[in-house]
């Protein structure tokens, strides 16, 4: 098929296959852009969350609530790497921000089920408008390729994260509260 016939079909001409060196460079560039995007998203989400009195871990919880129809408080704590005591503080913040509500489990009234307070809560604090504008500028085939890449990347990261403990020693080290870890206390030596 000639270039002219491609233009009328709505498909783009195939790009010639990259050499090994070009592919290595391309993969390196993709990794660099991933890191830049990750840093920009973290900054955006940190600022956006703070404007609402939330933390990055709170936004992680909101994402989980959006994807599942109700999450038990214990599972939410586990998924966010929080202790049962810390989840209470998070739930208080989420309710104050109007993004989550606590309900009782229909089968076991002792258990809490956390649900979004509204459809797609806090979406604007997790997905910037600029991202939506950039995404809208791509054609459908490109968006499908981007979607496949993001989906595969998210699944790989989730599998990797599931293999690594959030708190190696079973304690909350501050990393999930957007605080630096507290230094270990030194015991004073008695002579």
Strand residues, percent: 5-15%
How many strands, what sense, and barrel or not for the largest sheet? 3 strands, antiparallel
Number of helices: 8
Large-scale geometry: elongated
CATH-level-4 superfamily name of the domain at 24-127? Winged helix-like DNA-binding domain superfamily/Winged helix DNA-binding domain
Spatial order of the strands forming the largest sheet: 1-3-2
Low-confidence stretches: 1-9, 168-184
Q: What Rg do the Cα atoms give?
A: 22 Å
Question: Portion of residues in helices?
Answer: 55-70%
Summarize the structure.
57% of the residues lie in helices and 6% in strands. It has helices spanning 3-9, 20-51, 56-67, 73-80, 84-96, 123-126, 129-136, 140-163; strands at 71-72, 100-104, 112-116.
